[in-house]
Write a structure and sequence with these properties.
A five-stranded antiparallel β-sheet has the order 3-2-1-4-5. It has two helices and five strands. β4 and β5 form a beta hairpin. It is rod-shaped, with a radius of gyration of 28 Å. It has a domain of 59 residues: Copper binding periplasmic protein CusF (OB fold (Dihydrolipoamide Acetyltransferase, E2P)), CATH 2.40.50. The relative contact order is 0.15. The longest helix is centred in the first third of the chain and has 21 residues. By secondary structure, it is an alpha+beta fold.
């Protein structure tokens, strides 16, 4: 009888463990826009200044190619892992209005 009870308990624990292993941890993805403070593409590291705070992030090297300190970027992150990155162009200043033609003498 004890063996049957023990086997049932072991089976229940194994089933519970398998069920817990299948649950995936959901991490909120957020969009951030900031200025690159530092980047190390080989190490997959990026420091981004967002507002007054700096965030240390990790990313695949291919996402960091062509990214330099001072670039303004928009990233999607899950925790501290960069999922996507794109450079944000500084808004173009409007072209100055053409100068008025010189006044004609009378």
């Amino acid at each position: 009888m004890k063996k049957i009870l023990l086997m049932a308990m072991v089976g229940a624990l194994a089933f519970a463990g398998a069920a817990l292993a299948q649950q995936k941890k959901t991490v909120k993805v957020e969009k951030l826009t900031g200025t690159v403070v530092s980047v190390d593409a080989k190490a997959g590291k990026l420091t981004l200044k967002v507002g007054e705070k700096e965030k240390a992030l990790t990313a695949e090297a291919k996402l960091l190619e062509g990214v330099n300190a001072g670039d303004k970027v928009e990233v999607e992150v899950a925790g501290t892992k960069v999922k996507s990155l794109k450079k944000v162009e500084a808004p173009q200043a409007p072209a100055p209005a053409p100068a008025a033609p010189p006044a004609q003498p009378k």
